[in-house]
Amino acid sequence: MRLTDLQSATQVEAERIMTICNACRYCEGHCAVFPAMEKRLAFEQADVEYLANLCHNCGSCYHHCQYADPHEFQVNVPQTFSDLRQQTYATYAFPRFMGKAFENNGMWATIITVLSFFSLFWFFGGSSFAGAAFYDIIPHSLMANTFGAVGVVALLALVAGIVRYWRALSLPSPLKLHWGHIITGIKQGVTLKYLDGGSGDGCTYPNEAPSHARRIYHQLTFFGFMLCFAATSVGTVYHYGFNWIAPYAFLTLPKILGISGGIGLIIGPIGLLWLKYIADDAPKATANKGMDAAFLILLLMTSITGLVLMLAKGSILLGPILIIHLSFVLALFITLPYGKFVHGFYRLVALIKYAYENEESSNN
Amino acid sequence: MVGGGHAGLTAAICAAELGASVCILEGAPRTHRAGNSRHTRNLRPMHKGPTFVLQDTYTEDEYFDDLMRVTDGITNEHLARMTIRESAESVQWLHDHGVRFQPPLGGTLHLGRTNAFFLGGGKAVMNALYREAELLGIEVHYDAEVIDLEFEVDTFKNATVKYEPENKVIAAATLVAASGGFESNIEWLKEAWGAVAENFLIRGTPYNMGGMIKLLHKNAAQQIGDPKQCHAVAIDGRAPKFDGGIVTRVDCVSLGIVVNDQAHRFYDEGEDFWPKRYAIWGRLVAAQNNQVGHVIIDQKSKGAFMPPVFPPIVADTIGALAHKIGIDEEQLIKTIEDFNRSVVPGNFDHTELDGCHTDGLEIAKTNWARTIDQPPYSAYSLKPGITFTYLGVGVTDKAQVLMENGAMYKNVFAAGEIMAGNVLGKGYLAGIGMTIGGVFGRKAGKEAAKNALN
Ligand SMILES: Cc1cc2nc3c(=O)[nH]c(=O)nc-3n(C[C@H](O)[C@H](O)[C@H](O)COP(=O)(O)OP(=O)(O)OC[C@H]3O[C@@H](n4cnc5c(N)ncnc54)[C@H](O)[C@@H]3O)c2cc1C
Ligand code: SF4
Ligand code: SF4
Fold it and tell me: Which of A251, B191, B374, B415 is most deeply packed, by most CB within 10 A?
């Protein structure tokens, strides 16, 4: 008879492994997972889903585990937690069937999304391909409306998913939460504190020797994304606030932000994909269903096509490139709530919970 | 270098740094390299003043007193004091070779003053040392068990390595023996302990068969230590036969009572803090019928100790519990009734020697005695778990191996468990295993290099 309420084989495996780790605790200095684990005696669904999302898959606790394969205990925390994270994204996604589709076929779902947008654009805008200015090809209103609509839907879905996860972790409402916890969580998330291996030497990724490679490429990707996002936001303000119409000159804010972000968003994902390719298989998810790679490729294609678009200004290829770019961007938008993108938010919620929990226990 | 554990790697790195060409023969496969060292958690260095991993001060004299207490004086004072003094270098040496430690407050057993905890445990330490060895160009051979040694009077000539289809003979200018104790060798344990050793569980590697100890003794090395002396703790009886490691310990002995297969208590469970008494219970349990002891606690103690890896046997009555663990129901009920009746009420506090004791029992419980009367009741069945043995070879303060006649071999050194008995005649101090391995590993490596390069 199970006393706990675990739903899946992966959750049961996580409970089994956490019971072993909790008796061992050798890894307590590596990351937040182990101190959080030590506060618990039993591991219910909410506990394992919380711990799994605190894990950054740095690999240290696998390479340093005396109970890893071929030991009969078969402890592999990063692998089990990777599998479990993919499951949590699907469990809390809104609507749920979309989450499931991406959990099981991340790559295909993404490809199909890109292709369908491409066909749509082709169908509606194909006639005006020869035009040379952006909004000759696709009228600005159409572009803005489409993006606005897709963006709002994606944002709502994203928020719905995060709210569900937030509730599952029994965190108090954000309004009742101490700002300090949120700031601590954000700080630990943004600095990727738990990719430092606990010693500052870096994590054991892509192999057993500590390295900062993962952290560096991830930061390039993250800040690249944020800069591109900033570029778009500034562009929107220019358009609506000042009636300054794109394309902008090289030395304008949207361009500077966009180009530097775009470069980060090219080097970062390439680095991460490369690391993933050469990394040890053992600590990776058992079933790599392509969710991670699909997201990285989507980011990469968005930034590459974005930069190419800029270079293609005035050429007859502008039209096709623009719709390719827009297809990727739209696909990125719509898959945000279901793809790997959400990992940042789940991790953030888990880190906020960690800060909150630490405070609670030091008050008791 | 024979043996690729902490002692062997330390010696190899030190020798290579002095310019010697070094080859490590490790009997285990790559996945099981680093014997018992990969199961460790900390070491015990002497230190004056706080360091980046330790609090306060731990002086040579205090350290030596601690050692005298646990060994009842069965130690070589000269070697012991040398080890203690040199241990002050251990943390820095390891840090310089890529090993990382936890900050001082992280320790789970409140040993922040005396023990430095490895970040990620012993396997992280050993991975770092193996990486260092690789950088230094040290040759490492796995699955390379040494099965014979050839000597010419007091000089080592060559070693035979087990190899398919044909064994290999490797000649070298010097030999460093760092191949651990003989704890994995059940037959040998039976010679020392009798048939009861069949029921022992081995907490660490299955590869420390003691072959090198036998070979050295056969070639006139001085024998040190008693074959029955070892670090033995009481662990969960469901642990694997080998390599169960740290997680199989059961930390609730001092919270409850322990009975044997006849349902009688046999020792004061509250004699001292558990970490200090941990290492005597292996022997106590080994002396009982079937080498089994059963810890029994009630609901009051639940969650008050480090969670064990296996779930307890649980029942709502003492009788049902006895039935489930297969001991006499009437007798267990009687033992617990007697115990409960003699508990003197007091202020229970598990963080100090609270003096809560029993009165009028043949075997008293002198601290943390509380009645066992709140169901559900939990039981864990214990067996002796052998950590490592102390029988080995005599050495000098330069890690040079001594011969029966008191002379030294010209070119043979030893480090780690294989010579731990020089310092540790009996008993145990947490963290001293790695300390001895580190100090003698550094000595052996440096002396062996000098010897080989001359
Ligand atoms: C579960 C557990 C926890 C422990 N925790 C601690 C702790 O926290 N702190 C502490 O100080 N000590 C601890 N110890 C004790 C510590 O492990 C030892 O004292 C120390 O590791 C000894 O190092 P070593 O290099 O001598 O032996 P080992 O690390 O055991 O290495 C010996 C090596 O020799 C190889 N070998 C054996 N025979 C041959 C042969 N014939 N040919 C070739 N190779 C051979 C073996 O495969 C093995 O890899 C612990 C022990 C165990 C079992
Ligand atoms: S991963 Fe392995 S070494 Fe680390 S805490 Fe868990 S069981 Fe212990
Ligand atoms: S893989 Fe890294 S981040 Fe994840 S639990 Fe292990 S040590 Fe922590």
Answer: B415
Shortest CA gap B251–chain A (Å): 10
Cα A55 to averaged position of ligand 3 atoms, centre (Å): 5
> Number of helices (H) and strands (E), helices first, in chain B?
13, 18
Spell out the domains of chain B, with CATH numbers in brackets.
6-229+390-453 (3.50.50.60), 232-385 (3.90.700.10)
CB atoms under 10 Å from CB of B32, counted, come to: 21
Helices H / strands E in chain A, number of each = 14, 0
Residue A151 CA to chain centroid, in angstroms?
A: 17
- Residues B294 and B258: beta-carbon distance below 8 Å: yes
pLDDT tens column, A268-321: 999 999 999 999 999 988 876 678 888 999 899 999 998 998 888 778 888 888
- ipTM value, please give it: 0.96
Give the CA count within 13 Å in the CB-facing half-sphere of A110: 30
Residues facing residue B395 across a β-bridge: B401
- Kindly identify which residue of chain B lies nearest to residue A19, measuring between CA atoms: B309
Strand partners for B281: none
A72 inside 8 A of chain B by CB:
yes
Give the one of A23, A29, A197 whose C-beta lies nearest to B106's C-beta.
A29
Q: What is the Cα–Cα distance from B213 to B257, expressed in whole angstroms? A: 39
B39 and A65 within 8 Å at the Cβ level: the answer is no
pTM of the predicted model as reported, rounded to 2 decimal places: 0.95
